[in-house]
Specification:
By secondary structure, this protein is mainly alpha-helical. It has 5 helices and no strands.
Length: 130
């Protein structure tokens, strides 16, 4: 069973995926970079929830890169949309990203879990091939 920090991080990734859909539903629809970003990221983030939960290190690295890029992209959105509502949503997104990334990399239980999952996968391949 995955440790609590991994489960909470996976839930945070799911919240990010849902947020990508909600943003499309509640903002005026037009084809632009943001629309494509949300259409691509919603299923991508959703697809990473279970692999992260199961301790797949490639998924942890992938979501780290995606959240890092999104974290930086929010600065552009901050400048383009100076409304208080947009800024509050961006602050919430930044906070959620920091929590998810911290939970995926900082706790010793998380690092052990991802390391053990990688080693158990290696042993399973060795047993089936040799």
């Amino acid at each position: 069973m995955s440790p609590i920090p991994v489960r909470v991080a996976a839930a945070g990734i799911a919240v990010h995926a849902i947020n990508h859909v909600v943003v499309l539903m509640f903002s005026p629809f037009s084809w632009n970079v943001g629309t494509v970003f949300h259409l691509v990221c919603a299923p991508l983030y959703a697809a990473l929830v279970l692999p992260v939960w199961r301790g797949r290190n490639w998924a942890r690295i992938t979501i780290t890169v995606l959240l890092g890029g999104q974290f930086l992209g929010r600065f552009v959105v901050w400048a383009l949309f100076p409304s208080t509502g947009a800024h509050l949503a961006l602050i919430g997104g930044w906070a959620l990203s920091v929590v998810v990334l911290t939970l995926l990399w900082a706790p010793a239980s998380t690092r052990r879990y991802f390391r053990a999952a990688a080693h158990s996968g290696t042993r399973a391949v060795t047993k089936t091939t040799g």
